[in-house]
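Long-time lurker, first post. I've been practising inverse folding by hand and with some scripts of my own, and I keep getting stuck on stretches where the structure tokens seem ambiguous. Below is the full token string for one chain I'm working on. Before anyone asks, I'm not after the true native sequence, just a reasonable design that respects the backbone. If someone could post their per-position residues I'd love to compare against what I wrote down in my notebook.
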């Protein structure tokens, strides 16, 4: 007879699993571009390979979300995804032609991307059941990402970026081993209701929010896709690339805890504008600086750029979109932030990188971020005037 795991043990296993899958994410984000470079692919080709993931994630996240709903299990779906990810990683390690790599990446990303929203659902349900904060579990993902970036940076500097795929295989096997002790949860991911799509987009406030999120996300994704290549081109080795990603991941941890404790004291739109401003400064610094060590140090600004945005944007959506359409709003947000922005930045970022180099690429990224910053400032001013007018109208009628 099987007995459920004690509540504390259940959370510990989930923290370990979250730590491990984000170690994999770190290698995929940080070192796959360098792996493609070792295969002699051009910047344009690498950008197109990067854009495959966001495109596939639109379909795969929805498909596996619905599948987990119908099967009523998160654990079994996660195990299935991890097994497929491992098999496809081994297959990727066997090929070097651009066409075959692209084809296998389509399949790989179909099973890779849904792991993270499913794990978030797992973490949210576990935290709610135990009366704890979701951040207390999710933060182990940031720690895993940071540890992986630094550890495998040193290892890959010694053995070469061509071994990145085998690192992904190893981490996939370890993640699979940690998935089996997890206490299963019934999937509670609500699929996006198309009937609610128009209701959400009809709100001018929401439409403008998604527009400025897209602009900010393009800047973010350009940095994500081409930071490793940019550092490599100006003389950095794999370990220095690892330091860059480690600093960015670690820097977001204190911000998550601070916002969790004190974030409610501040309004969302001014915080989003501040995030856009810090993104602009961060990306401009990378454009101007030519010393890899100084560029690595700019990743500390990840804390007040992405850290603030990640936490506040979801809170804003939860406030302005009615409960019955919230899952639709969150699905749209994910598509805009991850899928559309990733597709645009991967496709056109590679062309910019190859034609004009790092400096112009990051100047364009900073430009998108600055426009987003101005947009959020404008929305904040309009919201402030609207609140003032409402208060004055209430005073006149009282």
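-- Answer (accepted) --
I ran through it position by position. Result:
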């Amino acid at each position: 007879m099987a007995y459920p795991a004690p509540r504390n043990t259940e959370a510990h296993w989930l923290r370990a699993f979250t730590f491990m899958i984000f170690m994999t994410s770190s290698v995929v984000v940080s070192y796959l571009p360098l792996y493609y470079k070792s295969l002699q692919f051009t910047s344009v080709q690498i950008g197109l390979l990067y854009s495959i993931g966001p495109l596939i994630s639109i379909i795969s996240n929805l498909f596996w979300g619905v599948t987990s709903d119908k099967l009523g299990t998160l654990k079994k779906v996660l195990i299935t995804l991890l097994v497929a990810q491992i098999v496809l990683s081994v297959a990727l390690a066997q090929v070097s032609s651009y066409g075959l790599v692209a084809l296998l990446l389509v399949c790989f990303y179909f099973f890779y991307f849904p792991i993270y929203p499913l794990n978030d659902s797992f973490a949210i349900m576990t935290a709610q059941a135990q009366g704890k904060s979701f951040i207390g579990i999710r933060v182990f993902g940031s720690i895993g990402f940071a540890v992986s970036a630094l550890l495998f940076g040193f290892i890959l500097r010694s053995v070469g970026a061509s071994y990145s795929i085998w690192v992904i295989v190893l981490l996939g096997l370890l993640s699979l081993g940690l998935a089996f002790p997890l206490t299963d949860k019934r999937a509670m991911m609500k699929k996006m209701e198309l009937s609610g799509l128009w209701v959400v987009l009809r709100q001018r406030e929401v439409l403008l929010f998604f527009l400025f999120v897209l602009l900010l996300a393009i800047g973010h994704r350009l940095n994500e896709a081409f930071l490793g290549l940019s550092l490599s081109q100006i003389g950095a080795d794999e370990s220095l690339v690892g330091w860059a990603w480690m600093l960015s991941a670690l820097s977001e941890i204190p911000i998550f805890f601070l916002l969790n404790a004190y974030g409610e004291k501040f309004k969302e739109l001014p915080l989003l504008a501040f995030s856009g401003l810090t993104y602009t400064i961060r990306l401009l610094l990378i454009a101007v600086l030519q010393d890899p060590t100084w560029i690595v140090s700019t990743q500390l600004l990840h804390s007040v750029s992405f850290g603030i945005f990640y936490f506040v944007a979801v809170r804003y959506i939860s406030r302005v979109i009615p409960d019955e359409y919230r899952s639709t709003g969150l699905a749209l947000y994910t598509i805009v932030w991850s899928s559309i922005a990733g597709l645009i930045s991967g496709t056109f970022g590679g062309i910019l990188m190859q034609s004009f180099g790092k400096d112009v690429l990051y100047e364009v990224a900073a430009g998108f971020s600055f426009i987003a910053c101005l947009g959020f400032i404008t929305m904040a001013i309009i919201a402030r005037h609207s609140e003032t007018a409402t208060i004055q109208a209430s005073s006149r009628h009282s």
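A couple of notes from the structure itself: The chain has two domains: 1-189, 192-398. Residues 1-189 form a domain with the Growth Hormone; Chain: A; fold (CATH 1.20.1250.20). Happy to go over any region you disagree with.
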